[in-house]
Each structure stands twice: as structure tokens, then as C-alpha cells.
Amino acid sequence: MRRSSRGMAALTAALAASLTLTACGGAGSGGGPQTGEDLVVDGETIASAELFDAAREEGSVVVYTSLNEVTNGALVEAFEKDTGLTVEGVRTPTGRLFERIQSEAGAGALPADVVTMPDHSLFGSLVDKGTFAKHTVPSDGQIGADFKSPDGTYYAINSAPTVIAWNKEIIKDEQAPKSWADLPKVGAAGKQIGIVHSSQGAGGWGLALFMREKFGVEYWQQLADTKPSLESSVGSLAEKLGRGEVAVAAARPPEVGELQEQGAPVDFVWPEDGTPTFNFFSGTVAKAKHPNAAKVYLNWVLSKRGQSVLAAEGGDYPVHNEVDPPVINEKKVPPLDEIKPYLAKKQEWVERRKPWIAEWNKVFGYRP
Amino acid sequence: MARSPLTSRVGRRAPLLVLLAILFVLVVLPMGTLLYASFVDVPPRPGSPPGSFTAGNYAALLSGGNREALLNTVVIGAGATALALVFGCSLAWIAARTDVPGRAVVQMAGIMPIFVSSLVGALAWSLLASPKQGYLNIALRSVGLPDFVNVYSVPGIIFVAGIYYAPYSFLLVNSALSLLNPELEEAAYVHGARFRTVLGSITFKLVTPALLGAATLTLVLIMENFPIPQVLGSPDGIHTMPSQIYRLMATAPSQPNQASAAGALLLVITAVMVFMQRRILATREFVTVTGKGFTPRRRALGRWRWPVFAFAAAYLLVAVVLPILALIQSTFRTNPYTRDIAAMFEPSSFGTQNLLEVLTSSDLQASLLNSVMVGSGAAVFGGLLYLVLGYYVHRTKEPGRRYLAYIAMWPAAVPALVIGLGYLWTWTRFPLIYGTLAILVLAFIGHLLPQGFQGISSSLIQVHADLEESAQVCGAGRIRTIWEVLVPLIRTGVISTMLLIFILSMRELSVAIFLFTSRTEVLSISIYNEWEGGRLPPVAAMSLVYIAFLFVLTFVARKFFGVRNQGL
Questions:
Q1: DSSP SS3 for A132
Q2: What residue ranges of chain B have pLDDT lower than 50?
Q3: What's the CA gap between A190 and B187, in Å, rounded?
Q4: What sign for the dihedral angle of Cα B421, B423, B424, B426?
Q5: Dist CA B159 CA B168 (whole Å)
Q6: Is residue B166 part of a domain?
Q7: pLDDT at position A48, please?
Q8: FRET label pair with A187: which of A328, B3, B48, B85, CA 20 to 30 Å apart?
Q9: Is A262 within 8 Å of B336 when comparing Cβ atoms?
């Protein structure tokens, strides 16, 4: 008894001691140019010597993002290697990220230096509250007007398309839908269709908005009649497609490409009748604790180098006009203007959202 | 030097005031924020305007998805609790009071599902029994039973929740049965009572406090469980209150006020249950452990020995073995698609890259370390708090005991998700704590208060105060009495409780989901985030690491502390 209680006391002390060791992040791995030099990557100037030295003084940048894990991981790794600055922050799906930003900003304690997330409504409400500082990146001239904010506070950093994908073991290639118009027919023929529900962030709402704008409200009804599986994330939908739980899915090319790489019997088409596309936006926070590092980060993400990493690892379209579209599973994807992209205007996106999602829920029998 | 009456009254009240202050910060404040939020039309985020009063959040609870979620919560709660009690109590009795062969295996069966955790259990059962391509369905299809099992259904959720919550009944009832003096049972046998009568009228009556405690705790825990309905219910649109609350919070735009109202409603339901449990227990005195020594006697099962063992083994199979096999299958598969049962054994579809990728990733090591630190913090600091609280409530005649005991049960009624939200809204003002591991430790201590308090209380209740009183009569002071009489008697219970808190913290997902940062990401969050992103192989690989870690931990604890036959 005595031995054990002494053992317990020792363990208690050890555990308590371990708590006082706070989790110290490793310092930057020392990339980037010498002090007093511009930061130049792949022949493009990303930061002046003055800005970069100031950023290096700050040491790290806190990024709040809802990019997926793989894409974000690749960005962080390449950025840290190029600059020697450390990236910290939070990566969660958009809804949770937005909730956190609102709470932290409300307390006047938003730790983020940079916020990256999609969705005109949510990101727009942060913009309206004056969350972001004006900042012009060096590559501004290579970025199309569609991808810049009217007031100079943020940029779109990529364009994310949604396509039609299918599992070849469940449905033969020739029977698979080639257009959105085909989709309800295939579903009516008894093949399980999967989509992301409309209140699930930018992808879901963007798809619902596209369908209604393009084909009218009857299309929703036809699709709903096939009893599609309503998923809560594009990732889990892709996983179900790969396993064959659903036959056809409105999926994102990078996820389908990853499934193909793993050997899953899946394929996708660029639908003949258009490709709904949404953007992730990124801005530097006005009250950032690391304002210079934030600028360097955004400059880098929108540079040729950052955009190439985003295209290569994220599989989405870059916004920098000198960077090539991504290659998915060794196939080069067609340029953006060839896939008939449908990019919703901010006003439609924001104004129609509430009434149309309510209607969508009714049509699809989705109980919010 | 005589103290003034006022100072002495304050002095006497000091322990109560300190305890109340701690509970206020840990429990009342976040819950007050929640209740407030449920009655106004503006989210309770710091810096928001106070908002104006509305009953609309509660009115919305009666509509559509919310009403359905409420109904599902009740049905799943009742069904799964019944199942969990049947499994947990049977296994507890078999392990503690029979001559079953391989008792160690039965003991393991009773607690092992706790290593699996409801998150990993639900993920694994989703792999096993998803309606079309679950591994069990693929196997059953080959024998002509297509689409045979479907875990994405209410019965499926009841089944999974039932098997993963059985260990709670097992832990509480097993420890009570092991401490039970067999004299009364023997007396009944001497007077000709039959086995069934003794079991029903004596054995289980004597452990009624543990049994009722287990039932209430299990029901409340299942009703507030988030991972199981989220993983298994959301594919088919089956929601319970917690997954509905998450949906209200995680979809855009979020509806925190309605989510708070849903949380408040759940709180009322459980508050009523806890009240009823206390009313029932208050009518009788349940002292089963006294100063007298005894040797526990085990019931001879005769020809039922092996069938009883088979029951325990079957439970172990569905709760632990099959899920682990499914996780192994998923971890080592390179191709997500499985055509048929032959493909499950096709060597070309397998590889070690998923596992290697996970094992060598610094993210996994960081999140494992975070989990360990948060778990240790909650176990050590939480354990001390629960012990002091338990002692004050059960061993002193000081005022305010009932209130403390009552407040300590509250967090059980609040969905862990909402506790996380309450902490987010309350603590963002304190950057020294917010965004660090400390906020997670605090939130876990608050969230696990009912389990910790009840675990320690049931040890305290069973040890009659007469032993301590005799020590005091013989001249020992209060501290010495506690240290030399009470602590040795309840040591096992306290250590078990602390280990339980550690393990529960290691597994906790819902509390942390709104509180973590990239530096404080714990393992459960890493697993959930990967699942939400649809990346199952790393989910499976991390889950295996998780299970292995918890298993080794408990094994070492048993060896090191000689904690035996106490569940852990």
C-alpha cells in the first residue's frame, strides 16, 4: 500500500511537471535570403528587403484557413521553406472557422494575421466589419479583375470547380451522366446520386445556386425525386464514391484525382452544360500582430510560386494568369474558360441564399 | 485570542465559498452564457450587443428537424441505455461474482470498449456495416444476403451506442459488487431462497446506488453523445439533439441561439432525471462496506460456465475485435474500393504507406503529446477537485453540500459541444488561457465533473464513516484520519477515477472541437477532421494508434499500481 501511494505521488508530480512544459513550436527552418535582400522566388519579387526584414523580425504568421488539410499543408511547407517564417493558426471547415473568428474578433482578440475562406456571404460579412487591411500584392497586375476586391482588402486565391464523377464498378462509363441535365435521369434509373447539401458552405450553396439559375426550380425537384444522398462535406462524399456507397457524385476534381491515384474505379467529366465554380478569398487582418509577415504571406500565396503550389497540390485553378491549370492524375485539366465556369456574382450569392436554401430544404426534404 | 463570530463564520464558510467559486467558473458561467443565449436573439459572442428577449428559439425547437431530433434523442437514449445496462451489469456480475472460466477475459471485455471510444467505434462500425459497401455487407453478399445490415439507422445507432456505453455500467456495478459483503446473500441461501430470487432481491438491490448511478449516467451520456449520431446518423439524415446542435453551429450561417435553446432543453430533461434518482436513493440507506472483514464468495455456474463465457466473448467480438479488424483492413488498403470478399484478401490492394505516413508525421506526434498533456492535467487537477468536493459533500456536515452535489451533476446534462461553445464565448477575453492547452484542461475538468464526482462519491458512500469516527475518537485529527483511514480505503476508487478521467479526456472530441488551435490540436480532433475531409485510411491508422496507446496505458497502470478487479 505504502509503495503504491508513493508511486502515485511520484506520478502525480511528474504529470503536473509535464503540464508546465508548454507546447513550443519549432522555430523557422531558416530558409529565405540574407538580411537586407529582397525576397525573390522563381524570378518574382515577393517582398522588398525592408518588408521582409520586418516580417522576419515578427518571425511567424498566424493563418486561419478552411482550405483542406492536404492543400494547406503543402502551402505551409513550401512557404516556410521559401521564407524561413513559421506558419501557425487554425484549419477547420468554414462554418466552424467563421464562428471562431466572430467570437475572437468580438472579444478584440482575433489572433489571425491572415484569413482564408470561401463564401461571399461569410467572408463578405468580415469585410463589411472592417476586419481586413488594404493591401496590394506585387503580382496584382497578373490577377484578373474578377479575383480582386473592389476596395482592395482581399483577393480570390483560387477557383474551385465542381464536376460530375462516378464509380465505374457501379455504373458503366457509357451510362454515366455527361451533363447536369443527365443527372436526374441517371438517378431515376436507380443509381444512387450523392450531393453536398445546400447549407454546407460554399460548395453546397454554389451547386444549388448554379442548378436553380441554370435549369430552374423544377430541376431541384427532379433531382430530389431520385432521393440523393445528402452529404455534409465534399471529402466524405468523395470517400463514399470511392467505396461505391454512391454511384454518381457532384464532386471536386482534386478529390476524384486522389481516389484515382489510390486505384479506386472512379472517373469524372467536365459537364457539357457548365461547371459551378467558387473562390477561396484571403485578406490580411487590420489589427494583425504580425502585419508584415501577413503581407509577405499573401504576396507569396498570390505569386507564381504560391499559385503553382496551390494548383499542383490543391488541384484548383490558379488566379495568377501566368500559372498553368493543375494536372490531375497526369492529365492536364482544360483552361478555365473552356469548362464554361459558372461563377456566381456576390449579390446573387448573398441575397438569394436565405430564401433559396429554405426552399431547397423543403424540396429535398432536408430538415434544418 | 478569541475570534469574532463574523470572522469565524466566514472562516467556517471558506471551503464552501472556494468550492462554489470554482464550480461557478467551471460550470455556472459557461452554462449561464448558454441559458442567456437561448433567450435572446443575438449570439452571446464577446462584443455583441446584449440583444432583446425572445422565446422564438424555444418555439423553433418544436418545428421540423428539431422535434425529430428530440424524439430520436429519447428513443436512442432509452434503447441504448437498456442495451448498455444489460451488457454492463451482466458482465460485471459475471466477472465479480461467478466462477466463470477466463475471468480475466471477461474483465477485459467489460472495459476494453472504453479504449475504442465512441468516435472510433462509430467510425469502425461505419466501415463494417454501411448499407452497401460495409465489410460485413460485402461478406454477407457473398453468401446471398445483400444489403443485410445497415448501421446508418436508428437501430444501428442504438446498437453501437449500447455496446460502447456498457463499460460505464460495468465499471460502477463491478466495483460495487466486488465490495459487497456476501453475508446477506448467504443468509438468503441458508433460508432456502433460490438463486434467481437472491440475485434480484438481494445482490442487485444492494448495489442499487451503483445501478441507478450507472443508469442515469449512461442515459445522460448517450443522450449527449455527438460522434455516434454524427458519423452514423448524418448520412441518412437521422439527427439527435447533439448532432442537430452541431449542425446548427457548423452550417453557414450558424444559429447559436437556437443551438443554445436545444442545449438548455436537454439540460432540463437530465436535471429531472438526476432529481428523480436522488429522490429514490434518499429514501433508504445503502451501507454495504463496513469495518467487518469478509471473503467474497463466487457463485458456481455449473454447466452454464461456458455459455456465460461465450456471452462475454461475443460482446468482446462486436465491441472490439471486429472494429479493430475493420480498422486494420482500412489502414492497409491502398484501393478504397472493395469489389467482393476476395478483394479483402487481395495482396495487391494492400500497402503500408498509409500507416507509415501517419506514424512518421510530426502532426500525429504533436497531437498525441497534446492529448497526453490535456489528459494528465484533467486527471490530476480534476481528480483533486473531485476528491475535495466528494469529501465535503459526503463526509462533512457543512452547509451547502446538496447544492454542490447538484451543481456537480449539471455538466452531464449539457452536451459537450455546448460546453465547448460556452467556454469559447466566456474565455476568449482571457488570452493567457484561451488558445492554450489550459483552456482544454479547464473545459475537460468541467465537462467530466459528473463522472469524476460520481466515481469518487460511490467509493466514499460505501465506506461507512464509523471507521473514521473511531479514529477521531481515539484522538486523531481530521487530516490524519483522512490520510491514514479514509485514503487507504478509497485509494483504489480514486485512482480508478483519475485513470477514467485521463482516458475520457484522451478520447474527448466534442468539448475541444470549438477550442483547439493548430498548436493545441488533440488526437481526437485530428481524427475527426480527417474523417470530415473523407480521408478514411489515415483515420483508421490514427485510430489504431489511439487504441494501442490507451490499451498500453491501462495495462501499465494495472501493473504499476496493482489496481485489480476495480474495472481498471
A1: strand
A2: 1-2, 562-568
A3: 68
A4: positive
A5: 16
A6: yes
A7: 94
A8: A328
A9: yes
Could you state, in chain order, the average pLDDT of each consecutive group of 10 residues for chain A (368 residues)? 40 39 36 79 92 94 90 92 92 83 82 94 91 95 92 94 95 94 93 89 91 94 93 86 94 88 91 94 95 97 95 90 88 89 90 92 82
Of A358, A344, A351, A365, nearest to A210 (Cα)? A344
Cell of A342: 459558372
pLDDT at A1: 35
B459 within some domain? yes
Q: Which of A22, A92, A99 sits opposite B254 (nearest CB)?
A: A99
Range of the domain at B180: 16-341+354-561
DSSP per-residue letters across B353-384 = HHHHHHHH-HHHHHHHHHHHHHHHHIIIIIHH
A264: which chain B residues are within 8 Å (Cβ-Cβ)? 335-337
Closest to A201 measured CA to CA, from B253, B257, B245, B235: B253
Locate cell 513550436: which residue? A25
Decide if A262 and B335 are in contact by the 8 Å CB cutoff.
Answer: yes
The pLDDT value recorded for residue B78 is 95
A122 vs B contacts (CB less than 8 Å): 252-253
Q: Enter the C-alpha cell of residue B80.
A: 441504448
Residue B86 to chain A, least CA–CA distance (Å): 33
- Upper half-sphere CA count for residue A119 (Cβ side, 13 Å): 28
* H, E, C per residue of A270-332: CCCCCEEEEEEEEEEECCCCCHHHHHHHHHHHCCHHHHHHHHHHHCCEECECCCCCCEECCEE
Q: Give the pLDDT score at B125.
A: 96
Would residue B128 count as lying in a domain?
yes
What the block records as the C-alpha cell of B458 is: 460511490
CB-CB contact of A80 with A87 (8 Å): yes
Whether B9 is in a domain gets the answer no
Q: Do A69 and B335 make contact, defined as CB atoms within 8 angstroms?
A: no
CA A26 to chain centre: 26
First to last CA, chain A: 57
- Considering only CB atoms, B46 lies closest to which of A8, A107, A236, namely A107
As a whole number of angstroms, the longest Cα–Cα distance in chain B is 89
The beta-carbon neighbor of B429 closest among A107, A229, A238 is A107
Residues 6+ apart with CB under 8 A from B71: none
For residues B101 and B308, give the distance between their C-alpha atoms in angstroms, rounded to a whole number. Answer: 9
Q: Cell numbers for A315, please give them.
A: 488541384
Residues of A whose CB is below 8 A from B428: 103-104, 106-107, 109
Indicate the pTM of the whole model.
0.82
- What is the total count of domains within chain B? 1
* pLDDT at residue B559, rounded to an integer: 66
Interface pTM (ipTM) of the complex? Answer: 0.75
Q: Determine if residue A41 is left, alpha or beta; phi over 0 gives left, psi from -120 to 50 gives alpha, anything else beta.
A: beta
For cell 503581407, the residue is: A295
Which chain B residue's Cα is nearest to A196?
B235
The answer to whether B252 contacts A237, with C-beta atoms less than 8 Å apart, is: no
- Rounded Cα gap, residues A187 and A190, in angstroms: 5
Assign 3-class secondary structure to A217-248. Answer: HHHHHHHHHCCCEEECCHHHHHHHHHHCCCCE
Q: What is the pLDDT of residue B385?
A: 94
User: B330: domain CATH number?
Assistant: 1.10.3720.10
Find, in chain B, the residue whose alpha carbon is nearest to that of A95.
B250
Question: Residue A86: which H helix or E strand, with range?
Answer: strand A86-91
Q: Which of B133, B380, B488 sits opposite A16 (nearest CB)?
A: B380
pLDDT at A8: 40
Classify B350 as helix, strand or coil: strand
Nearest-Cα distance to chain B for A89, in Å, is 5
